[in-house]
Give the backbone structure.
Amino acid sequence: MNNTDIIIIGGGPAGLAAAISAGRAFGKRPGKVTLLEGNPACGQKLLLSGSGQCNFTHHLPVNEFLARCKEYANYLKPAYYGFDNDAFSSLLAEAGCASIIRADNKVFPQSMQASDVRDAMVAEAIKAGVLILTNSKVLEIHKHAEKGFIVDMENGQQLACEKLILSSGGASYPLTGSDGKALNFAKAVGHKPQQFRPHLQSVNIENFDSYSTCAGISIPNAKVTFSSAGKSVSAIGDLLITHTGFSGPLILDNCYRFTKGMEISMCWVPGGRELIPELHKKAKSMTILNALWNTPVPKNLLRVILDENHFDSQTTMSSLGKKQVRELVQILVDCRYIISRVNALNTAMASAGGILLTEINAKTMQSRLCPGLYFAGEIMDYALPTGGFNIQMAASTGWLAGLSAANTVFKLKCHKSV
């Protein structure tokens, strides 16, 4: 049986960041940290990110970055404070991967090649003394009878370690290795994870055929409310019309909230409750379609919305009665849609679900149920927006997990020597 201080399962950005921080904490001494990657090479899913260009973080001040993480901000704060966007960019630059910041604050490798981000992290892990074993699939993990863990490999080999870090990702794009099977490892030592579900994915809408002619239309700063089981959440963001439903950052970023049958209330015309009665008075000779020319909704989309709600777009404003004006306000300010399907987990850009945050110490990433076990990245039950936030927080939680695990090992050995 081969022994090492720390074993990391999963070679994506979370696992590589954990490997680098742990290796550096051990003074870059070989034999202390082993990273197990089931694929022939690390970072297979990372290579797909941003259509192969890899938007790896977002250039915002610390507080603004965390604010974009919404309800997960407070939990993720310790990890992000320890390894933020500047630290990530600097780490890559050390390995020769310079970055560029776009006008929208998304940060990419200067080459616009995801492989450069992956290769830079692998190079820094090796430089830190980490042993990276590829084509190394884990079958099971066990608590050692005395201390630490035993890792059973599919090839029959056994590895032993004092500390174990699970950073094997979620369950989107399973062919890259993020297949969700690592949840079974966590269950074996007492965790009760949530099943993975799609995140950063589009949705289909009931009775949407007539909208297919509007596919490709984007509405900036659309206002929506998502409702289910008596609970509702409002959001603002860019919306994209597809052939079968809705997409764009507004939908992708909130996908983890969605279930089949959920209601989406769309405000097509902000301020419409005041604007439309005013137009009824002042634009009497204009058709409904022409009267609303200065709203965010393009005419072809507006025509479909009106037709679907039994309004003739060529009706003049003067011909509308008070009841019809109220109805017009309702469909343009509070137009209801029902989700018929959240698109598949295996093609989602990310997944939600995984190890409950209440079961992980936010200050160390160590399991609260199984001492010596740590988690990092998408295996944890958080869901972040598009724009580099997911890769950044995978690296941030990985960095904290690796550092915490190494420091604990170092302190234990110092204590024993005394």
Notes: Confidence is low (pLDDT under 50) at residues 414-418. The longest strand covers residues 218-228. DSSP finds twelve helices and 18 strands in the chain. The radius of gyration is 25 Å.
